[in-house]
């Protein structure tokens, strides 16, 4: 939900549905880039690492199975081969990894949205860049009110409004928006040369006091010209946001201080001797659902939601949008994955 330059893309996932949604989105990246003229996909590879693949609840074996089933291009690496392939990364003795190549790597989410909107406009969509502050049903249709006072009438509405969705609804969905942070490490030319070929990374940590796991995105050039290495993670003790005031306070902050500090420490341990030109951070929100798949459902006649990315949906957004569009167009579920997986759940 924060504006940055890099989100991980990959097929391999411990959950088959997540892997399938990613594969179907990744398969159409080339078409989206070609039709829009906007590049957003960078296939630098993706590394999923576990401190011990035999630890309870570890994701390496189920991810390996999903990768095989969905035809991902990857290798399973024990620690000796992992160190040989990525000598600048520091992992514990029992570590194993899945090294996915092919189209895995990262996307620029802002560029992906720009590409999608470009194609939408080519197909006749009107793009209105205003904030929606209210939705009302009037005489069999919806009136969508924006912050400028515009009033837009429609027979159907799709809400793809993430953690902010309940601010627009009377009855609340069971959404669990987590306040999280990302760290940015600006790198100079010497470090970029040393770390050439660094893939994106997902790493399950061993009993870290603050973080369950971390992810990182390969060094990427930001709008201000800096090249930054991005790192984020999953807090052991999540912090949830619900009110507009809580969202504003978090997004107007630099992020959670204890999480930012932990991310820096993990990064410096992961990349020994890393020389950082400057440090930065950003606040973010990841919105989870009751069943840990997005809600894609018609919650009342004509009102459809496509919300709850669960921290992993940027790469798959095109396919999730496709499912929601099919539901709006046909008025019933017609997708080849059971609707029950995406059913909206209401807050109690």
How is the secondary structure organized here?
Layout: E1 7-9, H1 16-36, E2 41-42, E3 46-50, H2 60-69, E4 74-78, H3 79-85, E5 96-100, E6 105-107, H4 109-122, E7 132-138, E8 141-146, E9 151-154, E10 157-159, E11 175-186, H5 189-194, E12 200-204, E13 211-221, E14 227-235, H6 244-251, H7 257-270, E15 278-289, E16 295-300, E17 303-307, H8 317-330
Parallel strand pairs: 3-12, 10-17
Antiparallel strand pairs: 1-6, 2-6, 3-5, 4-5, 7-8, 8-9, 11-14, 11-15, 12-13, 13-14, 16-17
Helix pairs in contact: 1-4, 1-8
Annotation, overall tally of beta strands? 17
Roughly how many Å is the radius of gyration? 21 Å
Secondary structure category: alpha+beta
Please report which band the strand proportion falls in: under 5%, 5-15%, 15-25%, 25-35%, 35-45% or over 45%.
25-35%
Low-confidence runs of at least 5 consecutive residues: none
Order of helices and strands: EHEEHEHEEHEEEEEHEEEHHEEEH
Count of runs of 4 or more consecutive helical residues: 8
Describe the global form. Answer: globular
Q: Order of strands side by side in the largest beta sheet?
A: 4-5-3-12-13-14-11-15
- Straight-line distance between termini: 25 Å
What number is the mean pLDDT? Answer: 96
The percent of residues in helical segments reads 25-40%
Largest beta sheet, briefly?
8 strands, mixed
